[in-house]
Amino acid sequence: MQLEHAFSVDAPIDDVWNALIDPERVTGCMPGASLTGVDGDSFTGQIKVKIGPVALVYKGTGTFVEKDESAHRAVIEGNAKESRGQGTAKASVTMTLKDEGDQTTGTVVTDLAITGKPAQFGRGMLSDVGGKIIDQFSSCLSKKLGEPAPAAQPAATPPSGGQPAESEGAGAAAATTPVQPSTEPHAEAEALDLMQYAGGSVAKRAAPLVGALVLGAIVFILVRRLRS
């Protein structure tokens, strides 16, 4: 199925572009998503999803197969599989940005194929949910890009006359020592509650089922009372 959504971010187009092609900067704005690794244009991660009392975890990979900076267009292809089930998700996502001065507008076209429990929602409901998620994502990104850059650290104070200065060799060695990458794990996100995002549309679909369950429970109680 194909889903189309639009969004806007209160930031210049170059800032938005540089953020969108950097998974480590934007993953925190995507509900339910956690990043587990980045290798060039490829990345790995997981997304937690709740459907009522049922919790699902999808683990997968994504790759930027196209990055056109002049057109501000990027294409990502991803695959994911349910960690404790047979559900799968495969998507090709095309993002295109447009310069609107101090604001950037964009479109997201997603070719999506899913199996398992989320497939029961259908195209219309998934489009509604996707729109709300992208609205939340763009609001979060606007806030992030609007935050001031961290202040630069002040230069080290040279030693006083009474203290021995660091040797030139030691200083040169310290200056050339490579910075090791962080080994801290990425924080896990809270699960994306599809029922919360779907709102009334899910309630309408679920109403007949809930009614049937309530009726069944009443019949069961009455039968037990008659037997006793």
UniProtKB/TrEMBL annotation:
Ranges where the record places region Disordered: 145-185
Taxonomy, superkingdom: Bacteria
Transmembrane segments: 206-223
The entry's keywords: Membrane, Transmembrane, Transmembrane helix
SUPFAM superfamilies to which the protein is assigned, alphabetical: Bet v1-like
Pfam family, one: COXG
Compositional bias segments (type: Low complexity): 148-178
PANTHER family: BLL0334 PROTEIN
Record's protein name: SRPBCC family protein
Species of the source: Gordonia aquimaris
Organism lineage string: Bacteria, Bacillati, Actinomycetota, Actinomycetes, Mycobacteriales
